């Protein structure tokens, strides 16, 4: 039996660690909302709050067509599968969604996971072993970092979007059986795109495979929303795409890998999060099929999210804010100082505008920012209100 003194010691130690997090400003308090997710939510105090920090790029989290598809599926296909896919957790809609995702992304096949975190957690270990090398951008998502750690391949890292370093790593790994370059399609703290054209050129030169995690792009980046490979005209060159259903594609949960037929087939045999974690719930699967249909038949939401981002960037620039350049709906508003960024975010919230400040260690020291994320569901009035609130909050925070 664990002794009382061990348990007391554990509690004291955890409390001390969390106190330290509060002191250094890295403790993350959690706000609760009293309504569904959307561009406007109700906060705990019952106030209307404008949301500028959801990954709800296409506004589909509360779209009536998506809700109707999920509700119909609840009746037709049930609530949950109570099984992993390979035992008794595969319905026809699961295969339909996989085929539709592959078609949408221009790959031969696709496989669903419980999340993109799981997809990235399973893909490397299943495909690669000690004869191989993974070359990863330093700012890749935590799930890629963890997934790479779980596999036995040699691990090499290059500074964010630094193509000279990438090439040096490719040369270092020249004796590996396979070299796999892996990158986020869009880096979420900056809204910067990965230079896929240059990455693929280096991959060609050094005979490497390319994997892109396009979680912050699929649905709205590229001429028809197929993501960063489409934007760069490289859909045929990228070997593996991972992504999430939890952002632009409806915002519920679920992830996928899209790739060549044999890659997908092997993942279904070997990827541990696929084999040992529950099947994606039927209402989410059916609603995701509807989401793809919406995106295939209309450019409307895509155009709206980009228009909202452009309007916000223009308004903030006129107001003298320092934005990171770009056109992605992730718009980092730079403050530099962590205390200032935090104070502005507080003042924004007091004015009914919800955006989050990020500081070290999430972003580099001295580059504290408020990250704004626009949505197709933001109206011009929402965007203008956001800009006005930033101007007021900046003034209030400096007094
Ligand atoms: C959000 C995100 C994930 C995780 O997706 P989930 O489906 O929520 O697990 C993975 N990779 C990137 C780049 C992301 O932005």
Explain this structure.
This protein has 399 residues and is an alpha/beta fold. Helix content is 44%, strand content 17%. It has 15 helices and 16 strands. It has helices at 4-23, 64-77, 85-88, 92-105, 116-127, 142-149, 163-172, 196-205, 228-231, 261-270, 272-275, 282-297, 300-318, 338-350, 380-397, and strands spanning 40-42, 48-51, 109-113, 133-137, 154-158, 179-184, 186-187, 192-193, 209-213, 240-244, 255-259, 322-323, 330-336, 353-354, 356-358, 368-373. A seven-stranded mixed β-sheet has the order 3-11-10-9-6-4-5, with helices on both faces. A four-stranded antiparallel β-sheet has the order 12-13-16-15, with helices on one face. A hairpin with a 6-residue loop joins strand 12 (322-323) and strand 13. It is globular. The model has no long low-confidence stretch (mean pLDDT 97). The structure holds pyridoxal-5'-phosphate. Pyridoxal-5'-phosphate binds at residues 115-117, 120, 141, 143, 184, 188, 213, 215-216, 244, 246, 255.
């Amino acid at each position: 039996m664990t002794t009382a003194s061990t348990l007391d010691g554990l509690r004291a130690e955890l409390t001390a660690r969390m106190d330290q997090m509060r002191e250094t400003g890295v403790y993350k308090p959690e706000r609760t909302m009293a309504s569904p997710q959307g561009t406007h939510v109700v906060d705990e105090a019952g106030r209307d709050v404008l949301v500028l920090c959801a990954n709800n790029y296409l506004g589909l989290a509360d779209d009536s067509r998506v809700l109707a598809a999920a509700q119909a599926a609840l009746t037709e296909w049930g609530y949950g599968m109570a099984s992993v896919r390979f035992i008794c957790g595969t319905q026809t809609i699961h295969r339909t969604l996989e085929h539709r995702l592959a078609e949408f992304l221009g790959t031969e096949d696709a496989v669903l996971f419980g999340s993109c975190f799981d997809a990235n957690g399973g893909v490397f270990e299943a495909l690669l072993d000690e004869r191989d090398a993974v070359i990863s951008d330093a700012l890749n998502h935590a799930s890629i970092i963890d997934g790479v750690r779980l596999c036995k391949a040699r691990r090499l890292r290059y500074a964010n979007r630094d193509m000279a370093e990438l090439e040096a790593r490719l040369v270092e790994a020249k004796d590996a059986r396979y070299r796999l370059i892996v990158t986020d399609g869009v880096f979420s703290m900056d809204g910067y795109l990965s230079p896929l054209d240059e990455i693929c050129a280096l991959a060609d030169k050094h005979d490497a495979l390319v994997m892109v995690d396009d979680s912050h792009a699929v649905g709205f980046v590229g001429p028809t929303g197929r993501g960063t490979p489409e934007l760069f005209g490289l859909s045929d060159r990228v070997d593996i795409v991972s992504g999430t259903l939890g952002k632009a594609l409806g915002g519920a949960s679920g992830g996928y890998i899209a790739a060549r037929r044999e890659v997908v087939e092997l993942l279904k045999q070997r990827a541990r999060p696929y084999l040992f974690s529950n099947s994606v719930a039927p209402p989410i699967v059916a609603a995701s099929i509807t989401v793809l249909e919406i995106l295939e038949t209309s450019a409307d939401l895509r155009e709206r999210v980009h228009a909202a981002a452009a309007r916000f960037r223009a308004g903030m620039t006129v107001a003298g804010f320092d934005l990171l350049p770009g056109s992605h709906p992730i718009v980092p508003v730079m403050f530099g100082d962590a205390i200032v960024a935090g104070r502005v975010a507080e003042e924004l919230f007091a004015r009914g505008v919800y955006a989050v400040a990020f500081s070290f260690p999430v972003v580099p020291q001295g580059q504290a920012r408020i990250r704004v994320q626009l949505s197709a569901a933001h109206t011009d009035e929402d965007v203008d209100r956001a800009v006005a609130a930033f101007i007021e909050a900046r003034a209030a925070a400096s007094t």
